[in-house]
Write a structure and sequence with these properties.
By secondary structure, the chain is of the alpha+beta class. It has a five-stranded mixed β-sheet. A three-stranded antiparallel β-sheet has the order 8-7-9. The longest helix is centred in the first third of the chain and has 29 residues. Helix content is 41%, strand content 19%. It contains eleven helices and ten strands.
Length: 307
């Protein structure tokens, strides 16, 4: 039997997760045709068994593919963890990549923790990496970042929730300065049904907490139906009155815009943010940084710091 290469196994795992040749290829830095060739080579080496059923629209795992995924996934995860430990032993704690949607989430805790961590570990550093608006957990799952700042609630089986970075952040809605809601002291979720609302769909529980799909009286809240690629485009659409954007006060304050008003929402509960990481992954530098964050959080919760 021909030797199976690790790159072929990684392609299989990426495709099993994405179920899309283009996305799996992009994730691994390959062309779509190269991804197809690599999969065919792996299938030949495994005795010619087909691992995926592929049509013009849908890619699905075969029974053989499901069996291989169940056995292979923990093996490759274990290998990745072994290699991470080896690199850490050779180079010290090194770089931690921290994914953030915006720099306003948990700023006080994170700034203190980064300073303490880098001072305590020679050569260690924390680099902030911007996460996409509609794929906030994707970089974590693709191992492009080691940690990510997330809003709660979050109930994803492959994601571990760590220490809280902020609590009781008020809910607000961002609207154009000439919008009918702009002049109010506060608004209700009931008001959202009258206007297009951006409701990201990548993490359903976060989307529902940020903006319910229906108002308290049962009216549907209509989502804005066009793609929004980044925060700059989002701000422009809000300022032009194309949509309203329910969010949290730290986000709205950090991205203040002269054409946008910020209005409190009276009937949504406050929000918290936390660190999160990929379940089952080992990363000594990440764990050391999380421990520092927990220390900083504990200090901030002391009674003498709360008065």
């Amino acid at each position: 039997m021909a030797d199976i290469e690790l790159r072929e196994l990684r392609l299989f795992l990426a495709l099993a997760e994405e179920l899309h040749f283009g996305r799996a290829a992009e994730r691994l830095g390959l062309t779509t045709s190269r991804a197809s060739q690599t999969l065919r080579a792996l299938e030949r080496k495994l005795g010619g068994q087909r691992l995926f059923d592929r049509t013009s629209r849908v890619v699905t795992l075969t029974a053989a593919g499901h069996a291989l995924l169940d056995e292979l996934s923990p093996v490759v995860t274990g290998l990745d963890n072994t290699l991470t430990r080896a690199r850490t032993r050779a180079a010290g704690l090194g770089m931690i990549r921290l994914g953030v949607l915006n720099a306003a989430s948990g700023t006080v805790v994170l700034n203190e923790a980064v300073a303490l961590f880098e001072a305590a570990h020679e050569g260690a550093a924390v680099r902030l990496v911007a996460t996409p608006l509609d794929d906030r957990l994707g970089p974590l799952r693709r191992r492009e970042v080691d940690l990510s700042v997330t809003r709660l609630p979050l109930a994803q089986p492959d994601i571990v929730i760590g220490p809280l970075l902020s609590q009781d952040d008020p809910r607000v809605v961002m609207v154009a300065i000439d919008h009918p809601l702009a002049g109010r002291d506060q608004v209700s979720v009931e008001d959202f049904a009258d206007y297009p609302v951006r409701r990201p769909a990548d993490v359903p529980e976060l989307a529902e907490a940020n903006c319910p799909s229906h108002t308290p009286s049962g009216r549907p809240i209509v989502p804005f139906d066009a793609e929004v690629n980044d925060i700059s485009e989002l701000l422009l659409l809000i300022a032009r009155g194309r949509l309203i954007h329910p969010t949290v006060a730290p986000f709205a304050e950090h991205f203040r815009h002269p054409g946008i008003a910020i209005v409190p929402v009276r009937d949504l509960p406050p929000s918290s943010s936390a660190l999160a990481w990929l379940a089952g992954s080992e990363h000594p530098a990440r764990d050391a940084f999380v421990a520092v964050v927990e220390q900083v959080v504990a200090v901030h919760r002391r009674p003498d710091r709360l008065t």
